[in-house]
Design goal:
This protein is mainly α and 80 residues long. It is elongated, with a radius of gyration of 20 Å.
Amino acid sequence: MNFWWREEPPLWSLALYPAEIAYRAGASLHRAISRPVNARVPVISVGNLTVGGAGKTPVTLALAQHLAVGGRAPAVLSRG
């Protein structure tokens, strides 16, 4: 863990500073122009920071099947 947390950042990290500034500017712009939307139906979001292999798809399928058995009509949306 000491590799990532240092009192003084390594000199090579200065090369990432322009990318940081661009990312911050883009994020600020996105926050300024986007507005939240209230869904008219209940929404369940299944996800985390892990990409692949975390079990999100099986959980989503099981949840959808459980809701369908209970008389609901679930819709599954995927970003990918």
